[in-house]
C-alpha cells in the first residue's frame, strides 16, 4: 500500500510513535461479539500499522499491548491475549525480519506464560540486527513500576559506590529505565476516545504530542495513522520554550 491520504512531509515524520491500542472490546460489543473477537481484529490492525509506519519512515513504534493492570481482566480473556501474542509472533516473524524490523519489549515479560517468553526471546534474537524500524511491545508494563525499578537500581549503584549522587541527572536516571535504548516518543496516539495515559511511559512522554481519536483500534488503519502524523506536523513544538 503506497497511497497518501494526507500531505505528509516525509522529512518531518515523528521519529517515535507510541500507541495506546484501545477499543477492541467496545468494537466487538458493537457487533454483539465476544471481546476476544475484537482482540483478534486488533492484531490485524497491528500488521497494517507496523507496515505503514515503516513505509512512512518512522524509526520507533511502541505498542501498549498488555499493562500490569491487565492481569485483573477475566482469566479467559488474558489467556486469549497471550495466545494471540504467540500467534502474531509465529505468523509475522519472517515478514518482520525480511522488512528489517527489530522486535523489542519493555516490561517484565518473565511473568508471562513460558511459551510467550520463548517466542518473544526468539523473535528478539532473530531480529536484533535489524535497523529500519524498532517495534517495541509493552508487555506486563507499567510506567510507575518501571520508574520504581529504576529508582531501586539507582540506589543500589549509589550504595555500591558506582554512582555519585551529585552526578545523577535526567540522562543518568533514564539509563536505568526499560526504555534506555529508545528515544522518547514524539507522538502518543490513543484510540477509542479515551483521554488518559493509563500508566504508559510516564517518564518518557514529558514533551510528547498527544493525538486522541474516537476510532476503535480494530478500525485504525493506514489512513488514520497518516491523519495522526499530519496533525503532529501541524503543531508548534516548543519543549517549554518560546518561539
From TrEMBL:
* Superkingdom, natural source: Bacteria
- For the ligand (substrate), the binding residues are 23-27, 35, 39, 67-69, 71, 73, 190, 196-198
The protein's required cofactor(s) are namely: Mg(2+)
Q: Where is the active site?
A: 22, 70 (proton acceptor)
Which keywords accompany this UniProt record? Magnesium, Metal-binding, Transferase
The record's annotation in InterPro entries points to: UPP_synth-like, UPP_synth-like_CS, UPP_synth-like_sf
Entry cofactor note text? Binds 2 magnesium ions per subunit.
- EC no. given is 2.5.1.-
User: What Gene3D superfamilies is this protein classified in?
Assistant: Decaprenyl diphosphate synthase-like (3.40.1180.10)
Pfam families assigned to the protein according to its UniProt record, in alphabetical order: Prenyltransf (PF01255)
Residues binding Mg(2+) are 22, 209
Kindly give the CDD domains that the UniProt entry links to this protein.
Answer: Cis_IPPS
Kindly list the GO molecular function terms attached to this UniProt entry: ditrans,polycis-undecaprenyl-diphosphate synthase [(2E,6E)-farnesyl-diphosphate specific] activity; magnesium ion binding; manganese ion binding
Q: What does this protein do?
A: Catalyzes the condensation of isopentenyl diphosphate (IPP) with allylic pyrophosphates generating different type of terpenoids.
Question: What family does the database annotate?
Answer: Belongs to the UPP synthase family.
Please describe the quaternary structure of this protein: Homodimer.
Please identify the protein, giving its name as recorded.
Answer: Isoprenyl transferase
Which source organism?
Peptostreptococcus russellii
